[in-house]
Amino acid sequence: MSTACDAAPRQADRQRRAVPVLVAVLLALLVLPTSVTGSGVALPAIGRESGASLAALQWVVHGYNLTFASFLLACGSLADRWGRRRAFAGGAALFTVASTVSAAADDILLLDFARALAGVGAAALLTSGSSLIGATFKGKARGRAFGAVGITTGAGLALGAMAAGLVTDTLGWRAFFGLHAALMAVVWCTVPLLPRDGAEEHAVRGRRPAGEDGTEGSRPVRVDWAGTAAFSGGLFLLMLGTVEGPQRGWGSAEVLGLLVGSVALLAAFALVERQVRHPMLDLRLLRNRQFTALCLIPVVATLSFVILLPLLPNYLMVANGYSSRDAGGVMLLMTLPILVTPLAATRLLRWGLTLRGVFGLSLLCLTVGVGWLAAVLEPGLTPGTLAGPLITLGVGLGLNFGLVDGAVLDVVAPESTGTAAGFLNTLRLGSEALAIAAVSAALVNLVRKPFDARLNEFPSYDGSSGRLANSVNAGDLSGPLSELPASVRPDFTALVTHGLTDAWHTVLWASAVLCAVTSAVICFLLGRSTTGTR
Known about the structure:
Blueprint: H1 2-50, H2 54-70, H3 72-82, H4 84-104, H5 108-136, H6 139-171, H7 173-189, H8 198-201, H9 225-248, H10 253-275, H11 289-306, H12 308-319, H13 324-335, H14 337-350, H15 355-376, H16 383-400, H17 403-410, H18 417-454, H19 465-473, H20 478-481, H21 489-526
Helix pairs in contact: 1-2, 1-5, 1-6, 1-7, 1-12, 2-5, 2-9, 2-18, 3-4, 3-5, 4-5, 4-7, 6-7, 6-13, 9-10, 9-18, 11-15, 11-16, 11-18, 11-21, 12-13, 13-16, 14-16, 15-16, 15-21, 17-18, 18-19, 18-21
Domain Major facilitator superfamily (MFS) profile: 21-530
Keywords: Antibiotic resistance, Membrane, Transmembrane, Transmembrane helix
Main location: membrane
């Protein structure tokens, strides 16, 4: 009887602690995706106030993406060593401070650095937050909790661009980062209400209690710092070389040095991962064909959907004359379907469609959507014209949203599920960071060509073709137009908008081809055995 009496208070205490865990994690995971989608919308306003170059402006987005991807697994290891609550608190504090510095920054380099720090905080929040949910909720309650996580993350992704446009147009870009700081400060205030775990209790000794959350017993949980440093450094040099290529020339010694350095560090990373006992990424998982195929699905999503989130609003502001708020509103056509399409995917599985079939439909929508956008994109197009391809892209992402993560865990050994999930998330975020940087660089490079050929027709314009390419790709046409007499502005606008549109056509068609080829490889690797009905 005493056992039953003791169990009741423990159950009640667990339920009381479940509410603040869910509230804290959901609020954090609402903020993180808006930081990705919204910062791109705020770039034109940042550029106009700071006068920074496009290369420096891009690191407001790239710095966050880079550190988010690079530190994901290291933060997961630190959560195991120091405790989930401590890691969550540290991530919330770092994100709050970094966002406060971003809101107050009067120098673009300081803003870039603060955004990179925010990415580290985001990595800690994502890994420890998911772990807190998994440890706090059991059985069906855990499924409902993770369902709420998916909906909240989708909402942040869906509403981020519009919210950023609204805040930026109304209160200024600093208010956007200030709002992030305020919301994350609320998250940090909930930390005392979160439950401790065994790792936190034993953090002074740097050991876990025997048998908790793994098989290491009392051995210290090791962080693969060498792998983390090599991976982060290689990805950073590759992104920096990609961004600087159009500015300095692809054959310049600086750019070639960056690219060679990135190859050397990534090769060193592969060697390190083969040698260490607890690698950041277990590359042996790639021998599993189905695992490799599932990890490639987010790459298709990146090439078709994710690259548009920070970059397409800038095109709409230049080619259509939209405000930040209007551009963010149009992006809702692409992001809102993410909130409802996962339910459709569940229905399709219940009706007998295989998981491979759902993934195939998702890949088809993503590939068709980006090709459709390439076919219709032109200056002055209406939201009605954009609706078809953007909704198709949103449906395509929504159909695999969350399903990929679950399927990955089903095709690896039980003892490898943690590593597999970390591998997937690191590849997902790393590909996003690199693809956004590559597409940004390609657009600058492509749009300079018509400017080089025809800019001499406008002698009153005092800038170079490179400066103009940087401005319009950052979403700013008003600055260059202000330097011209009113009589030539319509012709100048036509040159810019058509040159920018041609560059976008090239990028989008290339993305469509890459998506089609990658999708075919995925379907081949999956074979016929992915038939689960989750």
